[in-house]
Amino acid sequence: MLIDFEHIGTTSRDLDRTIEFYCDLLGFRLVLRKPQASGELAFLNAGGGMLEVFAPATAITPARDVPPGEAGMRHLTLAVTNVDTMVNRLEAAGVKVIERPRNAHNTELIKRVAFVRDPDGIIVELIERAEGR
Question: Of the residues 28, 30, 79, 123, which has the maximum number of CB atoms within 10 A of its CB?
Answer without folding.
Answer: 28
